[in-house]
Design goal:
The protein has 95 residues and is mainly β. It is built from one helix and six strands. The strands form two sheets. Strands 1-5-6 form a three-stranded antiparallel sheet. The termini are far apart. The C terminus is likely disordered.
Length: 95
């Protein structure tokens, strides 16, 4: 079987820690049977982000969720955060 490597591309992403986000439909825990979530419209249909998921803007401009463990294995920062901003840690808690 032939092996393949992911092409190196830069993406934009933020880690969603709950609450409404401009441009996304937010469903609160009160409205849902589960913890609140973001509903993200994609070309393939709706995808859902849980609290703590990363929201990625792909090379084509589409946005989609990514679980923290997969984000940590796949991506690394290419620049320092802008002055005055706080980037969430990529480290996952073992507790």
């Amino acid at each position: 079987m032939t092996k393949y490597r992911r092409k190196s591309v830069e993406i934009e992403a933020f880690r969603w820690m709950g609450g409404p986000v401009a441009g996304f439909k937010y469903v609160s825990a009160f409205e849902s049977e589960h913890q609140g979530y973001l509903s993200i419209s994609t070309a393939a249909g709706f995808l859902y982000a849980s609290v703590g998921d990363w929201i990625i803007t792909g090379v084509d401009g589409d946005k989609y969720p990514c679980k923290p463990f997969m984000f940590e294995q796949t991506y690394e920062a290419v620049e320092e955060p802008a002055a005055g901003t706080v980037e969430p840690s990529l480290e996952t808690s073992n507790s």
